[in-house]
Amino acid sequence: MFAFSASLRCNELRLTSLLVLLTSALLSALGTLIALRLGRRLGLVDTPGGRRQHTGPVPRIGGLGLFAGFFGVAVWLYLFGPLKPEHRLPIAGLLIGTVFVFLFGLADDRYEFKAAPQFAAQIIAALIAITATVWIEEVTLPVFGFQKFPWFVTYPLTTLWIVGMMNTVNFLDGLDGLAAGVGGIAALLFGAHMMFKVDQPQIALYALAFAGACLGFLPFNFSPARIFLGSAGAMVVGFGLAALSILAPARVATALLVMAVPIADTAWQIVDRWRRGQSPFRGDRGHLHFRLVDLGWPPGRTVLMYWAFCAAFGALSLLTDSRLWKLISFLILIAAVGGLLAALSAKNTTPPNEPDSK
Question: 276 or 113: which carries more pLDDT confidence?
Fold first, then answer.
């Protein structure tokens, strides 16, 4: 289906990008239809209660469809696409890590592991990425300029980024369409940045394949959801975003802006749970999206607001090259979300100890 040359001309690049996006979306949709039947047949469903707002059993293996859409196209690109030799090992790490987190997530959807095995799997996923040189080795900071890290900084920093992103997406997966939509928006912005800002169209195609997989799954997951991402889907989205944000220069800054609201929410919840003597990995209704719903916001409107913030601040990273303005924007968002959560916590607008449906 795809025919590539060493140097992609503009029209060829546009056509290829569109084909990648649409093909991954189609595969994701077909895989999700299969997952719908398979989830019901195997009894892999979420029942109402806890954080979940649905009224009946809903299959929770939507990650199968999303994985099929991304992995199918990504493997094709790896085998037949335009990939520079120096990118082959990192992309292999992306693919192997995605397979690992997907398989572990499926097992988690079946057996519902505790927090410790989940955290161990996230560490292993980070080690897979690091082994394949998917790491944060250098950054360019406002004021301080270009910084190249030694290995004893690179390895922990990369692990923290990947584990943090996977937990952020996991916590984000509480309202229908929220995590998949944010993941799709982020991947689209990553692809646009790689293609037009840093001239890495070969890597951009993998981001577009990831975006297409999220978008193909989304119609089945938006409110009222017919299927949930489940642990497999959330882990694939989290690991995929973390790895893709590392694979080309300046992507981490874009990811920070796109994910600023979820990252701030996650950081607040971890600190707040530690303060209350609870596990930071324990699910509850203290997250911002749940608090807004408990205040009377319709779930669909809350999800759309998240999408709008992620898209707007992600677009800002495309429109400005100023690292200082990116940093200021990120800090403003972090402060705003933190202040809002502090105010809501002071008013005790939601029962923070209500457990996850799992």
Answer: 113
E strand spans, the chain:
45-46, 58-59, 138-141, 145-148
Residue 296 pLDDT:
86
132 with 90: CB under 8 angstroms? Answer: yes
Is the pTM value of this prediction over 0.85? yes
For residue 296, tell me if it sits in a domain: no
User: In degrees, to the nearest 5, what angle opens at C-alpha 184 toward C-alphas 325 and 216?
Assistant: 165
Only one residue has tokens 């199968």, namely: 64
Residue 155 CB contacts under 8 Å (≥ 6 apart), including other chains: 130, 135
Q: Which residues contact 339 (CB under 8 A, 6 or more apart)?
A: none
Flag whether 263 is in a domain: no
The neighbouring-strand residues paired with 138 are 148
Contact, 100 vs 125, CB < 8 A? yes
User: What is the three-class DSSP state of 142?
Assistant: coil
Residue type, position 246, single letter: I
Secondary structure element (H or E) that encloses residue 188, with its range: helix 178-196
**Average pLDDT, stretch 305-328?**
84
Containing structural domain, residue 122: 10-252
The DSSP bridge pattern shows strands 58-59 and 45-46 to be antiparallel
Is residue 65 within 8 A of residue 28, CB to CB? The reply is yes
In the DSSP assignment, the letter for residue 52 is: B
Joined tokens for residue 265: 């929410």
* CA distances in angstroms from 92 to 48, 134, 301, listed in the order given: 39, 10, 38
Of residues 274 and 100, the one with the higher pLDDT is 100
Domain count, the chain: 1
Q: Give a yes or no: residue 76 inside a domain.
A: yes
Q: Which residue has the higher pLDDT, 320 or 131?
A: 131
Q: Which two tokens stand for residue 113?
A: 């592991």
Q: Is residue 215 part of a domain?
A: yes
